[in-house]
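Two proteins were folded this term; both appear here.
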Amino acid sequence: MTNSETRPLLQWSAAMAMSGTIGAVVLESGAAAPAVAFARCFVGGALLVIWCFARGWLPAWRPSKRDLGLAVLGGLFLVGNWVLLFASYALSSISVSTVVYHTQPLILVGLAAAFLGEKVAKSHLVRAAIAFGGVALISLSAHGEDGKPVQLAGIGLALGAALLYAGASFVAKQLKHIRPHLLAAVQTTVGALVLAPVLLITPLPATTHGLLWLVLLGTVHTALMYVLMYASIGKLPTTTVALLSYLYPVVAVLVDVAFYGHRPTWPEALGMLAVLAAALSPQRRGQSKKEPRVSRATDPCGTRTPARRS
């Protein structure tokens, strides 16, 4: 493997591993989900704006009204997804919420079929049936830290987060001509503006300890993570991206087991494997011997959306 191949591989792997620790950072902050999402948008968004400005992308950007409107809509979906996902951690567990959340690629396929008229292959239907069968198995068998069954509300919130993220990805497919860094900067800025009034009801942590966790979430788990993702994803084959994406839920499960005492039951573990196998399996339809590279506008779920620079 050459140095040009090793660097993006390490960058994408690091980004996926970071994603797996987000749940722990959210719980350690002690803040309510809307406040956590605001902090992520405010800190991460500000750094992304600075990054885009320093690279000269922001001053040169002249979006149309349609593009700006879609970017704002996508931002609303994105921050809504974060609020629901963060809220789900406390009602289920980090591992359960994260795995259920990974039904998002399959939901996106359904949205594309419903609104873009894209054909759904039988293999997608089979994968969807397996994944949501796994979710049902998790719902019936998963237990939280106290040994009691997880609350179905937590699983419902994770599914709602997956639906909103799929919606954000669906909107991003319509904006594939916009540089992803810019799109992320716009959407996190929108999120900070929308969520700011919520702080009157769910304020930020009053302790330095809690605030430092939120700063970590915004700097490392948002700005740095997005830069690593977008710097590497366009240079990696599709199957490599899909396989390394397993690091996200695997790290989340390991963190939950090691630091929060979560002990998956056998049926729960089987359900998790079913969801991940169905939702994250690489697509091999019509691939040539030389694997295609994933576009720079690809979302972390592996939805390919070829992009040109703007």
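Next, the second protein.
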Amino acid sequence: MRDTRESRLLLVLLIAIAFALITVDIRGGEDSPVDGARQAAAAVFGPVEDGVATVVDPVGDAVSAVRDSGERHDRLATLEKENAALKARLGSDDRNRSRLGQLDKMLKSAGAGQYGIKGAEVIAIGAAQGFSWTVTIDIGANDGVKRDMTVLNGDGLVGRITTVGPGTSTVLLANDPDFTVGTRMEGSDELGFASGQGDRPLRVQLLNGKAKVQKGDRLVTFGSQADKPFVPGVPVGVVSRVDPSGGDLTRTIYVTPFVGFTKLDIVGVVVEAPRTDPRDTVLPAKPKPTPTPTVTVTVTPSAPAADGQYQQEQ
């Protein structure tokens, strides 16, 4: 196309329309008028992304085997058997060993929290559908996935499902600026709301302005009504900074997420919530403090002199 006045005007018009649609989409929330178009796009482009990602991959069958674990509540014994079978089926190269480790860790977390999950693989990343921090996974409506389901991995909270196609879904990551989740602090049960800040720590507003909190404290999801979009007890992160309260009604803290959002691979969609709140049971064991070495000094007195006084050693 030649650089004419008409072409420039057309370009400006298209950009204006794009920004208008993004604004309408964000303000519309769950009732966005362009949600239907987004779902149609997921139905068209999702299989393409899935097809590109589906190469000869021995881990794919392993993840598929986990997709039925949400249909049983006696998961601990079942997951252990499935895990042993998956290890036998997978290859021994470094990449598969790494992915197997992720799968193993996720299965243990799901068992600890009694979450019914469907395993998935991340097949695409990017902001193609208007979000800043999203990934596409290789399961969708045909696998029982619905909008506003919790997504986790072996480390903790990954995000929530926002768009569902027949065979793929879009996940809004927990570090996205539009992401908010209710949190509860380990031990003290202080409640708050965590918001994403991109590549910076999560910002958490505690409801209690006088809450006692310190660096190293840990948080989990509080859970939502009817468990959507968030189930309770999923690890969120560790407190890295605490702002002074200053007498405010709320208190601000900053939390380093357990999940590394730039290296996602194997994830799980929670398709069945736990019967009871797992509280803090899904959190990993706290590292044991390194003992401080102590030095003991023993003083040996000198031999007494003839006059009964101790001589100073030269």
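The mean pLDDT is 79. The radius of gyration is 27 Å. These notes refer to the second protein only.
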